[in-house]
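Students often ask why we bother predicting the structure of a whole assembly rather than each chain alone. The short answer is interfaces. A chain on its own may look different once its partners are present, and contacts between molecules only exist in the joint model. In this exercise we take four input lines together and write out one structure for the complete complex. Read the inputs first and try to guess which parts will touch.
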Amino acid sequence: MPVGLTEQEIERVDELVGTRRKVARGMPLYLSGESFQSLFAIRTGFFKTEVVSEDGREQVTGFQMAGELMGLDGIGTGQHNCDARALEDSEVCVIPFNRLSELSREIDTLQHHFHKVMSREIVRDQSVMMLLGTMRAEERLAAFLVNLSQRFVSRGYSATEFNLRMTREEIGSYLGLKLETVSRGLSRLQDEGLLSVSNKNIRIHKLDDLKKAMSPRC
Amino acid sequence: MPVGLTEQEIERVDELVGTRRKVARGMPLYLSGESFQSLFAIRTGFFKTEVVSEDGREQVTGFQMAGELMGLDGIGTGQHNCDARALEDSEVCVIPFNRLSELSREIDTLQHHFHKVMSREIVRDQSVMMLLGTMRAEERLAAFLVNLSQRFVSRGYSATEFNLRMTREEIGSYLGLKLETVSRGLSRLQDEGLLSVSNKNIRIHKLDDLKKAMSPRC
DNA sequence: ACCGCGCATTGATCAACGTCAATAATGAGC
DNA sequence: GCTCATTATTGACGTTGATCAATGCGCGGT
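Now the answer. The structure tokens for the assembled complex follow.
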């Protein structure tokens, strides 16, 4: 993943990425409480991460797609702090964390890259906090769809047509809304002509207006 | 901060912490957009961090007290992504990030400690996401006060009596509530006999019940 | 291909929280 | 110590999104 490495360094980073692991749709990659040993880089597929609080509340904390790194939350305690579950048949690279630590002591580009990835995860979480703390239901939905669109396009897929891999309930959990509110919100965005929804298929007609819909109404 | 270092290592970590800096109440430690150079460890005082979105929305993303580290969000982009502002006259240690990087390549205890701190920040942010996404107003307030209480007690202060350094509006921003709702919530917790509020002074009478108030009603 | 269950949509009602407003209390600065 | 601006409290009312409920649809699994 990092750039600017010598041939030899690239080789060593390659062998760091030990094994691959397939995860069938619905199956966990790891569960909260399990001992943390490795990070996981998604090769193909789609995941959700979910935290469960002591009193039984559940919340989806993120959706991860190809190229993204999972498991960073486990470093602090040595145990995973959330469940990671595949939303479709997926494959990940297993990155043993102690080997990553060693190697990043020798290759400073790798070290720097790793620190940046962690930092960006913090910034991402803070923008979700902002979404949950200040946005209204329809704004949250618009922000969610625009974010997905951007991530798809940066992977070479269409910015304006894609399939949701998650249910309305999972979207709602992520956005701090009930599934009915998600459904109504999508219908409303459709009525406004910004997009078409057919089950999990989304076609965005007016991406600019959808971005505007992230801001407070008129 | 890390433990288990040799004499010599401790010395080197000490000289890593270059200078100290005082920040008067209300003054910024750093602002969003400023070039990121250093992390800051709080020696004394109290801070808030606040993000401002493009469309002008503001949200307090955290309150930091002595011993806590600030600035991690800047590593990813090389620019600070939030404003950090002192809520009372404060003093911080300036930790130049490139020197920390170098030193953590040589002292693996330091490296590991730093990774843990970043990871815990991610976990903390996720628990705030859960608070914002699933809790009701009074539950959020209870969780906020219990969290403050725990952090005070771990610093040797009273778990049951302390002064809030922030306004109702700042609490509300952090908890995704309006200041009136915060005020009403505190009054309600007082009516229920769980605590006494007198402006910024909080006395918790029933810490156990306050913890229970974090869970869904009855 | 079919079946059945999970998922989605939509409506009606309600509670929680936001908004607007008026007043009171505090404390920072002179 | 006084004053004024900031902060906090409380009430009345409005809006948003949750809840409860009923129906329809689609897709995964056999």
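Check your guess against this: The first strand of chain B starts at residue 20 and ends at 23.
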